[in-house]
């Protein structure tokens, strides 16, 4: 099998970046043997965890050991430490930029600048950063096309569970008239744990420990994260052009353990339901807690598991259920996008 070595630069070494590097540390041989995919992770830039650049490639196992033992990579034994995120975007030595800084739903920054800069410098970009895709999808897509590179972002919705590429690639050609489901892992986890007897605060802490929550978890519990995902679904998968201000939004902060128990006594569960509906030429999006009957499929989607039903013309409803958040789970989204770039560049063959 012919192989290709990809030079990867990573911007952001939080939950997702670490999950991705953990996968790289475990799967090097499998990726080479199964897909002819070889890699050198040449640089990482993170203002808190540390930055390092080595053209010979950083060792993923050493990086993970440092993170596990020290919480940062500042003592990585080789390479230059005087680099920043823009060095990665502009380096001639990098083919693929992985942008996994925290989502900023107002400005998209710093991710938006990173992605623009990397595309302008003819790097393929893989991201799980929701801000830039929600705010500037069309501009970024055009920039990628203009520069002859790919922009992929499976991880922005349902982490590594196929959703974006499921529609864009596996179901290419369908029209999607409605999408409905649970798109935030943290809130679904909190609601599940409250049913099991945990307080809201303890459940949120546990969601943060497990790497589900956003850097500022207000984004999850107030429904902003789910809302931004509805914007992405509307604009990327349904041809819309809505903004977060168009989304009717309510979070779960007002829901008590008593509400959860009362619903259950009535054979219902409270779920934060996201919905995007095409009505003629316009698209309506909402995120709000709803009581669903226990025999409804979404009622039994528990913990950080998410679910989406796509209502399509050729296939009718298509439902996908799987992890919605998590370090390895979102790292998998990054990996699948990188392997897709590899597959395209290798002419569609592994
Ligand atoms: N904070 C998000 C969630 C992460 O809980 O779903 C995945 O987008």
Explained architecture:
With 350 residues, the protein is α/β, with parallel strands linked by helices. It has 2 domains: 4-160 and 328-345, NAD(P)-binding Rossmann-like Domain (Rossmann fold); 168-323, Dihydrodipicolinate Reductase, domain 2. 40% of the residues lie in helices and 23% in strands. It is built from 12 helices and 12 strands. Strands 3-2-1-4-5-6 form a 6-stranded mixed sheet, sandwiched between helices. The chain has a 6-stranded mixed sheet with strand order 8-10-9-7-11-12. The model has no long low-confidence stretch (mean pLDDT 97). L-homoserine (HSE) binds next to helix 7.
Task: Specify the CATH homologous superfamily of the largest domain.
Answer: NAD(P)-binding Rossmann-like Domain
Total domain count: 2
Assembly category: single chain
Order of helices and strands: EHEEHHEHEHEHEHHHHEHEEEEH
Secondary structure tally, helices: 12
How do the helices and strands line up, and which of them pair or pack?
Layout: E1 4-11, H1 15-35, E2 37-45, E3 52-53, H2 60-70, H3 85-90, E4 96-99, H4 111-120, E5 124-127, H5 130-146, E6 151-152, H6 164-170, E7 176-182, H7 185-195, H8 200-209, H9 218-221, H10 224-237, E8 247-249, H11 257-265, E9 268-279, E10 282-293, E11 305-312, E12 316-323, H12 327-345
Parallel strand pairs: 1-2, 1-4, 4-5, 5-6, 8-10
Antiparallel strand pairs: 2-3, 7-9, 7-11, 9-10, 11-12
The structure holds L-homoserine.
């Amino acid at each position: 099998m012919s192989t290709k070595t990809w030079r990867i630069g990573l911007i952001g070494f939080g939950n997702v970046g670490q999950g991705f590097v953990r996968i790289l540390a475990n799967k090097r041989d499998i990726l080479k043997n199964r897909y002819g995919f070889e890699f050198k992770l040449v640089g990482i830039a993170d203002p808190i965890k540390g930055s390092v650049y080595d053209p010979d490639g950083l060792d993923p196992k050493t990086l993970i050991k440092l993170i596990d033992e020290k919480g940062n990579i500042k003592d990585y034994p080789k390479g230059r430490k005087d680099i920043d995120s823009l060095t990665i975007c502009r380096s001639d030595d990098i083919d693929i930029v992985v942008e996994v800084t925290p989502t900023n739903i107002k400005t998209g920054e710093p991710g938006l600048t990173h992605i623009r800069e990397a595309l302008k410098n003819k790097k393929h970009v893989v991201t799980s950063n929701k801000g830039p895709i929600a705010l500037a999808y069309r501009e970024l897509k055009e920039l990628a096309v203009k520069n002859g590179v790919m922009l992929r972002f499976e991880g922005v919705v349902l982490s590594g569970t196929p959703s974006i590429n499921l529609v864009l690639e596996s179901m290419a050609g369908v029209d999607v008239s409605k999408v409905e489901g649970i798109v935030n892992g943290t809130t679904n986890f909190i609601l599940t744990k409250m049913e099991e007897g945990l307080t809201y605060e303890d459940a949120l802490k546990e969601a943060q420990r497990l790497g589900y929550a956003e850097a500022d978890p207000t984004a999850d519990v107030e429904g902003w994260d789910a809302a931004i995902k509805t914007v992405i679904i509307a604009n990327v998968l349904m041809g819309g052009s809505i903004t977060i201000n168009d989304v009717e939004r309510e979070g779960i902060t007002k829901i008590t353990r008593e509400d959860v128990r009362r619903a259950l006594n009535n054979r219902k569960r409270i779920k934060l339901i996201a919905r995007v509906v095409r009505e003629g030429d316009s698209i309506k999006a909402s995120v709000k807690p709803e009581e669903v009957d226990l025999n409804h499929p979404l009622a039994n989607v528990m913990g950080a598991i998410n679910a989406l039903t796509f209502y399509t013309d050729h296939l009718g409803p298509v439902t996908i259920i799987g992890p919605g958040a998590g370090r390895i789970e979102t790292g998998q989204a990054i990996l699948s996008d990188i392997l897709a770039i590899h597959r395209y560049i290798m002419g569609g063959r592994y």
